[in-house]
Amino acid sequence: MENIAGASVSINKLFENISTVIKGKELQVNLLLTVLFAGGHILMEDNPGTGKTVMAKTLAKSISGSHGNSVFKRVQFTPDLLPMDLIGSNIFDEETKDFKFKKGPLFCNVLLADEINRASPKVQSALLECMAENQITVGENTYPLEQMFFTIATQNPIEMEGTYPLPTAQLDRFYMKINFGYADPDTELTIFKEYLGILNNLQTIHQVLSIDDVVTLQKQASEVFLHDSLIEAIRNIIQGTRENAHIALGASTRAGIIFIKCLKAYALVKGRDFVTENDIADITHPVLQHRLLFRSKDAKDNALSEILANELRRLSDLKPSFQKPTN
């Protein structure tokens, strides 16, 4: 890829900008950017107060749209939320004596669906079409969304009171599910000492990329080279989830395609124009874990890890060069 150096410069600018606010979360930021450049959506699960909402706001403020700020919308999901609160509704216009569609918050570039599992499954399902097809259908009319439409959903652990498990079809639309986690002790101490400066950084954060830049990086990510042996490895991992006795529901073909998109974008975030076996090791769990139904808690902790380890051993025995062949 001719522009890998330029892509790395742009991605590093975005990463460093986010890091002025989000401290000690290099892996989580890299995974967030991976999903952005893969053209997907991300689900972040963790306890309240770990920085999930701040992460979403920081990313949105770092990207400028055609009129300055990117169109960022935050929706607080609550039990009384209705689908029309997200999609919009037809409003009767007294002047024209006709109905006009008033767009809801889903018509944006970056959507923060905060505490998504506090709303009912009916409301959660309102996101399905826009996440899968980048459009919204209301009655007989279909409205396209922005070319760059990125959903960052946060949820509290489902064991917490007042939460609803996300439907399987909804989970499958998220390219990754990550745990944000608490900061390590040293980083947390830094945050406590510098919290006023960090909050000020959030308020005054610079816009370092445009939406057009993001779309260009998404195109570059799709062109990252993926060796045939790694495609076979992805196939083996996907099939392994279906054949494992400890997994009740394995990964779909769509999951495999999303896996490929994320691998290419992750390699780009790492500054490469080709995917390696280490990339597979890094993102298998965030891409696949939430798509599988396990038969027990022990299986959830171990089954996918065993499938991945077996495939990495096979790749190690092959010892191929994963770089794109030169003509």
UniProtKB/TrEMBL annotation:
Recorded protein name is MoxR family ATPase
* Domain ChlI/MoxR AAA lid: residue ranges: 241-299
Q: Which Pfam families match?
A: AAA_3, AAA_lid_2
Q: Would you say which domain of life the source belongs to?
A: Bacteria
* Source organism (scientific name): Rhizosphaericola mali
- Per the database record, which ranges form the ATPase AAA-3 domain? 41-176
According to the record, the signal peptide region is: none
A molecular-function term among this protein's GO annotations: ATP hydrolysis activity
The organism's lineage is: Bacteria, Pseudomonadati, Bacteroidota, Chitinophagia, Chitinophagales
Q: Which PANTHER family match?
A: MAGNESIUM-CHELATASE SUBUNIT CHLD, MOXR FAMILY PROTEIN
CDD domains assigned to the protein according to its UniProt record, in alphabetical order: AAA
